[in-house]
Write a structure and sequence with these properties.
Elements (H helix, E strand, L loop, with lengths): L2 H4 L1 H6 L4 E6 L9 H14 L3 E3 L5 E10 L2 E8 L4 E9 L2 E6 L2 E4 L1 H4 L11 H13 L5 H7 L6 E8 L7
Antiparallel strand pairs: 1-2, 1-8, 3-4, 4-5, 5-6, 7-8
Amino acid sequence: MIFFKNNWLWTLFNIDKFEYVLFDISDQFINQRDQASINSQKDSLNYNAFKKIKSNHMQQVVLEQKDEDNHKMYLLSTDWNILTIDINKKEEKFIVEINTYIHIHPDFYKNLFDPFLHFDLKKYVKGEILHLKSAKDQTHTKYNEQFGGKPLRLVMINIDNEIEKL
């Protein structure tokens, strides 16, 4: 979405004004479209389908360097949402884009997490990278299981009308 590219700083500042909806995380190559629809409906029943991030404050930040000109920043909000920002350098200019979706583990979504289990964003990112390199790697799956399983994906659907105009 071009808005998240051109106004990324404003977007990040006002992230707590955005409303998100659960978006099925099933793999379209594995599940048939009908099964994906059923999974999405189940998720809506098991979890509140709509969510807002409570604050624009972040408790952890991890920067992944993909190569010399491409980076991915992971941010963990104070209410356990994982946001990602792509930072790419093209022709001596940086292009920054906030992804339109967020992730949150099921236990955090339902407030069932054990406060003594420390969520380490760095371990999460390491698991993501290993999983992308080899789907057989179980590091990511084992880490996710501590927090209720594979993270839920939510996509932004609305911006609160009450945003103060500058």
